TrEMBL record:
Entry-linked InterPro entries: VWF_A, vWFA_dom_sf
Compositionally biased spans, kind Basic and acidic residues: 44-57
Entries under SUPFAM superfamilies matching the protein: vWA-like
Gene3D superfamilies per the UniProt record, alphabetical: von Willebrand factor, type A domain
Compositionally skewed regions (Polar residues) per UniProt: 32-43
Keywords assigned: Signal
Organism: Bacillus methanolicus PB1
Protein name: VWFA domain-containing protein
Length: 461
């Protein structure tokens, strides 16, 4: 009996073990079958991802790089045009350029070209085409008897109006000095050097209210003539400057429209009228400053309108360039008080030439020749600077992104080579232009302008 019970117990143990093994085999077999069933799905999924990546690559059409200098000059200034990448501070670069396309995983050539184009947009410098140089020379040639445009001919009267930004941002400091104080001192130096007989006017805008939303309506309707166009009186002009406090918004369009009223009695037939707009930013009042500038330019006042961007950001710079372009005027960015004074000195030089004209000293006027150190080679130096520094800044940004794992070494090499070729092209164009300009060295301003205009028109046809 005991033997029978032992045998039965042993049988039950064996049966349990066999059952467990059978269950495990079924589970393993099921997993194998499931894996086999999943394999086609995985292959399909990988194929779909591959097709998707190929489709995305095909959908990318990088914008072409400029092929002429005129195309280059037409590009808007980049939002990070003043950004200074530093290898020791990579986090700042990564934050500033975090919106660039992702090229961290085996990018195609198209994707790299697209990346470079987007990066270039963000740091785009303010290149100036031949038209900008022509405008500089035209302004310097005012009063030359060979210049046919009546706007640039001296008349019996010379009137200069400065339209000054008094918005809240002018209370910021630059070079250890409040921007408004720097502007006031520069303007005062300028008017103190004006020759007797020249008239000057001063208009401000954005000087009421504050830059708070609640004061926008008040501030955007504020523009005031602080010193009506008249002969310079030191005491009265100083008193007018002292009243100006930077507080509000930036109604550039309003100021330009009001300026037309200031000059209404000075028609262009008997007056040489010059307007200088000084601003440190974009119009914030939805007042269409470009159209306002066009209306002033095309009025019977026939003014020359030049624009100074004082420590201005990229957005403001692009709008101020548009204002200058709409009126065939000069745009100049100045970064501090010394540069602002230098720009205003150009009007002083012009006013002195006007006095020579009034005194019939025509021989002195006609002897004006183009000087290497003046506008032409100042223009060339500026273009060379832009090309060299833009190239270097892009190289640094690419290096920082590669070191931070945003691209591999092959991508960096490709982008560096593309960057080198592009900026070598810019410098070669500047070099060609420099050689052409050497031939104009002994020509009068009028002759130089005519030569450049013929060349420029031929290149743009």
């Amino acid at each position: 009996m005991k033997t029978l019970l032992k045998s039965l117990f042993l049988f039950l143990i064996i049966l349990t073990v066999l059952s467990a093994c059978n269950k495990e085999e079924k589970e393993v077999d099921g997993q194998v079958k499931q894996q086999a069933a999943d394999q086609p799905t995985k292959q399909v999924s990988e194929k779909e991802d591959e097709n998707k990546n190929r489709h995305e690559d095909e959908s990318i059409e990088p914008e072409p790089l400029p092929s002429t200098y005129e195309e280059l000059a037409a590009l808007p200034v980049g939002e990070h045009v003043n950004f200074n990448p530093k290898l020791g501070e990579p986090e700042k670069t990564l934050e500033a350029f975090k919106g660039l396309p992702d090229i961290s995983s085996n990018p195609s050539k198209k994707e790299l070209d697209h990346f470079y184009r987007e990066l270039l947009k963000m740091v785009q410098k303010d290149f100036k085409g031949p038209e900008a140089l022509i405008r500089q020379l035209r302004f310097q040639s005012i009063g030359n008897p060979d210049v046919e445009d009546s706007r640039y001919q001296f008349k019996e009267n010379l009137n200069v109006e400065i339209i000054l930004d008094a918005s809240g941002s002018m209370a910021q400091s630059i070079g250890g000095k409040v921007k408004m104080d720097a502007a006031k001192d520069s303007i005062l130096d300028f008017v103190n050097q004006l020759p007797e007989g020249a008239k000057v006017g001063l208009r401000v805008y954005g000087h009421k209210g504050s830059n708070a939303d609640s004061d926008k309506k008040l501030s955007c309707s504020s523009s005031e003539i602080m010193y009506p166009i008249s002969p310079y009186n030191e005491g009265k002009f100083q008193s007018a400057l002292n009243k100006i406090k930077p507080t509000g918004w930036t109604p550039i369009g309003l100021a330009l429209r009001e300026s037309k009223k200031d000059l209404d009695q000075f028609e262009g037939t008997n007056n040489t009228n010059i307007v200088y707009l000084v601003s440190d930013g974009v119009s914030t009042c939805d007042d269409n400053p470009v159209q306002a500038a066009k209306d002033l330019y095309n009025s019977n006042i026939s003014p020359i309108i030049n624009v100074i961007g004082f420590d201005v950001d990229a957005e403001g710079q692009n709008q101020l360039i548009q204002i200058a372009d709409a009126t065939e005027g000069i745009y100049q960015k100045v970064n501090d008080e010394s540069e602002l004074k230098k720009e205003l000195e150009k009007i002083t030089d012009l006013a002195e030439t006007w006095i020579d004209w009034k005194e019939k000293n025509m021989q002195k006027i006609e002897r004006k020749k183009i000087q290497n150190e003046l506008d032409i080679f100042g223009y060339i130096t500026g273009e060379e600077y832009n090309a060299s520094f833009e190239r270097t800044e892009i190289e640094l940004i690419i290096s920082i992104l590669e070191q931070s794992g945003k691209m591999d070494d092959d991508s960096q090499q490709y982008l560096d080579q593309k960057n080198k070729e592009y900026h070598d092209w810019i410098l070669s164009e500047v070099g060609k232009f420099k050689e052409e300009l050497k031939k104009l060295n002994e020509k009068s301003y009028a002759e130089a302008i005519k030569t450049l205009e013929e060349k420029y028109q031929q290149n743009t046809q």
